[in-house]
Specification:
The protein is mostly helical and 131 residues long. It has helices spanning 3-6, 16-36, 47-57, 68-99, 101-126. It has 2 domains: 17-99, no CATH class; 100-131.
């Protein structure tokens, strides 16, 4: 809305376009790699392969919505969606740990007990004796 104004103001938003450019370049590279290694005889490896296979089937259809541009936008949307999902999950987990600090204590006890048990098993496997 005010992008013309934001261009002239200092701040972290000025780096946004460079970050988006890096993301777009990554998406283009991934799509290109998938195009080069696409196996039309087998099942698709992922959503990009499925999109490319469907594009190949519908390339004669002039009304198809399956294009390189739509594929790139789909890849970028999936990257953003995954990032938002992970960051939200981590944020929520940290908030729960802050709200219930007693859980952190139990986790450390379990972790140290498991760590001791795992180290003992590793020593047994390597032939060392445990006390």
């Amino acid at each position: 809305m005010f992008s013309w104004l934001l261009q002239h103001l200092p701040g972290p938003h000025t780096q946004l376009l460079s970050h988006l450019s890096v993301l777009a370049t990554f998406a283009v590279q991934q799509v290109q790699r998938h195009k080069e290694s696409l196996d039309t005889s087998g099942p698709p490896r992922d959503v990009v392969d499925a999109f490319l296979l469907k594009m190949a089937k519908e390339e004669q259809d002039p009304n198809t919505e399956l294009s390189d541009k739509n594929l790139l936008m789909t890849v970028i949307y999936l990257l953003f969606a995954g990032t938002v999902t992970v960051s939200t999950t981590v944020r929520y987990t940290l908030l729960l740990l802050l709200k219930y600090p007693q859980v952190q204590g139990r986790r450390l006890v379990h972790q140290s007990a498991l760590g001791t048990e795992v180290r003992a098993q590793e020593k047994e496997c390597s032939g060392e004796r445990t006390a």
